[in-house]
Amino acid sequence: MKIGVPKETLAGERRVALVPDIVAKLVKDGHQVVVEPGAGVAAGFTDDAFRTAGASLGDAWTADVVCKVQKPSPAEVGKAREGAALVGLFQAATNAELVGQLAKRRVTTFSLERLPRITRAQAMDVLSSQATAAGYKAVLLAAGTVPKFFPMLVTAAGTLSPARVLVLGAGVAGLQAIATARRLGAIVSGFDVRPAVKEQVESLGAKFLAMEEQVQAEGTGGYAKELSEDQHRRELEFLARAVKDADVVVSTAAIPGKRAPVLVTRAAVEGMRPGSVIVDLAAETGGNCELTQADTPVVHHGVTILGPVNLPATLPLHASQMYARNVASFLAHLVKDGKLQLDFADEITRATCVTHDGKVLMS
Length: 363
Ligand code: NAD
Fold this sequence. Notes:
The protein is of the alpha/beta class and 363 residues long.
């Protein structure tokens, strides 16, 4: 099977879908890999490294399976070959037009954000691997913006108290943010509406913040569900008090397929100390802070609010390495006897395949 790796075209995207180590494994398994010249350069992987791994350099869109990170641009859709497969993070649920175009071109499209969060799919779980990068980087961004040290310092010039970091939403990104802030020596608290995460937050050395009257919103598949209006009002009141004590708030709360819940209101921001920082990882889906603007820093009452939308792209080497491993595991799941063999009775194939044989398969 011929596997293609184009250079990503979205502005600011520095990741690449496959890295040389993984290419070498695919070649060893009998596949051909064709990489667009320069595809890995922004992530730190040279054309030579791909060549040494056994890839050829050329037009990646001639392949049977094209592996991407971001959704294809209109020009790329034009290059997609009839009958070929396309794998990547296409946010299919919110890109109906793109999905329709790919179906029309008779491309078989796999949108990896739709992978079920089941044990069998863990090695393919791009959401987890990229959220790990985002959670880590969010804390570094906050540490570089807040006008304080993170750790407590005892120096000849005096004793400096540690920064207080509050992480809202303790999923994959949130737990990584907690771990990173702890490593930097901050005093860290975590909050989530899924009580199951309390133990995980505490095992990282952070305090789990619990509302007097605990809100429990565990939905299906380990995800959270939307709170009722009354629960949400109580949550906002609780968090307005909690954020007052924080130098840094990292927010990661999300509900699949919905707008991100608002957790920090304008009034709550106004209650924070000047110099405090909010890094809102939910910016792309509307933001956890009422004042967040995607990719545009906001300063309100001395509080800086950052809403970066693609932090994994700022850690492109490791983010690509993890992504590539996820993609290779996904391909291994689909390929039998050197070819893609789709079994729509399989949960992983059914969930991720959004176009096939000229049809849109999403319900
Ligand atoms: P996510 O990105 O959907 O959400 C991030 C966090 O926000 C979640 O912990 C969620 O509970 C929380 N949240 C939602 N609404 C909130 C609110 N109003 N207030 C506070 N917090 C709120 O989550 P994720 O990181 O993708 O992880 C989702 C779940 O899937 C987790 O339980 C994770 O452990 C699980 N998971 C399972 C597997 C697997 O078994 N293969 C792999 C990865 C993740």
